[in-house]
TrEMBL record:
One of its GO terms (molecular function) is magnesium ion binding. It catalyses: L-seryl-[protein] + ATP = 3-O-(5'-adenylyl)-L-seryl-[protein] + diphosphate; L-threonyl-[protein] + ATP = 3-O-(5'-adenylyl)-L-threonyl-[protein] + diphosphate; L-tyrosyl-[protein] + UTP = O-(5'-uridylyl)-L-tyrosyl-[protein] + diphosphate; L-seryl-[protein] + UTP = O-(5'-uridylyl)-L-seryl-[protein] + diphosphate. Its cofactor is Mg(2+); Mn(2+). The active site is at 251 (proton acceptor). It is an enzyme of class 2 (transferase). Belongs to the SELO family. Mg(2+) binds at residues 252, 261. Its EC number is 2.7.7.-, 2.7.7.108. This is Protein nucleotidyltransferase YdiU.
Length: 490
């Protein structure tokens, strides 16, 4: 067990050579106040000395020193919409410190929206209230769904004006992640020909996150395989959950395969595979159904950046594993969502017809999946009612239920519908962070009312459970809130 001694901190990133970062202090904001505090995460991380106090607020905005913080802006680069940009880095976020949780796992405490850094380029170094709430709630929603993600410990609003499409106000997000190392960190050292730093970074990633790989025959190749694997798992989870990230630039890809840098993301309402949530993504590069292909593209970019360290054929071999791994993970997740744990010859056909039905009819995706999981309680009609073409839905449903009847448990016994459905409810959420819910929470928060944020955070931490008092959060979106396109400005 790691001790709770505040001195028991690791400052490992700040001990890297200066090419990795610049030390920067946060810049003050006017009249900051706490919008949310994630007490359960603080407890889980063993951070009793962290609480949403005035002291912490002053320390976060640089008005007072915090004994644990030695803030720094990381240098990285990355491919944005397919083009390499060497000038990226933490332009508005700072790594405050690294801490150990009660299991000894080290995590980063990062402050997003902290002010200007040497990597701010034309930006103002700020994040607005709207985007901060979006990241806070979505990272907690993803955690509730069991999808690898950065986390949110708290957030602050302020009265400092910040200019986007209109005037908004500055905010701060206290982000927690096992790593803030991105694909773009490696790309930076590769493209700037700093090969000693490139291999040092790879050594540190192995030492910090995957020490068991240091004894592999080819540790760097093993590290890359691990990134490919983790990314495949993350993307499979996104696709199964109907999550659309929106800006899968390589600077937004975590080396650990955790969902990272929430911007114009969305969860699917209607099942539209071509859905583009990012208002600025004119070509649909990051459309929902493009995410697997883009993840592979990003991994290829990372592989290229690692080419001084790993033989080409090993890079190719690791990349070649991406699609089979993705298929395997996606299939596992979709099978669990459908309650089909046995593998039967006819299953491929059942899946093909399922996606044909979904793509053609575009029912509400979360409702449809939860409807299948509730068939024992609510019956088939509740699912069929989601479709205009009811005969098509009925035909598929009959086929699906006939397949369910063939399901056998480990003892070879038929699986009763209520047992199947009980398990399905544990992987098909009733509550999903739909964009309309977020928009309502943001509108209220901008008036100083944070009740919706608290309610959403609480419910989305357990999205598979019933929350009778919060039933309205499970409603279908109103017409204005369906398939929203979200501004990239944040
Ligand atoms: P993002 O699109 O949020 O992933 O950011 C891409 C790059 O732009 C990163 O280097 C960010 O740090 C930087 N950036 C984004 N917004 C701002 C801002 N308002 N001020 C300074 N830098 C920013
Ligand atoms: Mg980013």
């Amino acid at each position: 067990m790691a001790s709770q001694n505040p001195l028991d901190i690791s400052t490992r990133f700040s001990q890297l050579p200066s090419a990795f970062f610049t030390a920067v202090k946060p810049q003050p904001l006017v009249n900051t106040r706490w919008m949310a505090w994630n007490a359960s995460l603080a407890t889980q991380l063993g951070l009793p000395h962290f609480a949403p106090t005035d002291d912490l607020k002053h320390q976060l905005v640089g008005e007072a020193e915090h004994p644990l913080f030695s803030p720094l802006a990381m240098k990285y680069a990355g491919h944005q919409f397919g083009s390499y940009n060497p000038d990226l880095g933490d332009g508005r976020g700072l790594l405050l410190c690294e801490l150990s949780d009660s299991t000894g796992t080290v995590f980063d405490l990062h402050l997003k929206g902290a002010g200007l850094t040497p990597y701010s380029r034309m930006g103002d170094g700020r994040a607005v209230i709207r985007s901060t709430i979006r990241e806070y709630l979505c990272s907690e929603a993803m955690a509730g769904l069991g999808i690898a993600t950065t986390r949110a410990l708290g957030m602050l609003a302020s009265d400092t004006p910040v200019y986007r499409e209109k005037q908004e106000f500055g905010a701060l997000l206290l982000r927690v992640a096992e790593s803030h190392i991105r694909f773009g960190h490696f790309e930076h050292f590769f493209y700037s020909d700093q090969l000693a730093e490139l291999s040092l970074l790879a050594d540190k990633v192995i030492e910090w996150y995957w020490p068991e790989l240091s004894s592999a025959e080819q540790p760097y190749a093993a590290m890359f395989q691990q990134v490919v694997n983790n990314t495949a798992l993350m993307i499979a989870q996104w696709q199964a959950a109907g999550f659309c990230h929106g800006v899968m630039n390589t600077d937004n890809m975590s080396i650990l395969g955790q969902t990272f840098d929430y911007g114009p993301f969305a969860f699917l309402d209607d099942y539209d595979p071509n859905y583009i949530c990012n208002h600025s993504d004119y070509q649909g590069r990051y459309a929902f159904n493009q995410q697997p292909r883009i993840a592979l593209w990003n991994l290829s970019a990372l592989g290229h950046a690692l080419s001084p360290l790993i033989e080409n054929k090993q890079i190719e071999a690791a990349l070649g594993q991406f699609e089979p791994l993705l298929q395997q993970y996606y299939s596992q997740h979709m099978r669990a969502k459908l309650g089909l744990h046995n593998t039967l010859a006819e299953d491929g056909e059942l899946f093909v017809t399922l996606f044909e039905l979904l793509e053609q009819a575009k029912p509400d995706y979360p409702r449809f999946m939860r409807g299948l999981a509730n068939i024992d309680k609510d019956g088939e009609q509740a699912v069929i009612d989601l479709f205009i073409d009811r005969p098509a839905a009925t035909a598929w449903l009959n086929r699906y239920l006939a397949r369910c009847a063939l399901e056998r448990d480990e003892e070879g016994m038929a699986v009763p519908a209520d047992e199947r459905c009980r398990k399905m409810r544990m992987v098909n959420p009733k509550y999903v962070l739909r964009n309309y819910l977020l928009q309502n929470a943001i509108d209220k928060a901008e008036q100083g009312d944070y009740a919706d944020i608290e309610q959403l955070a609480r419910v989305l931490a357990a999205p598979f459970d019933e929350h009778p008092e919060d039933e309205m959060l499970a409603q279908l979106p109103p017409a204005w809130g369906k398939g929203m396109e979200i501004s990239c400005s944040s």
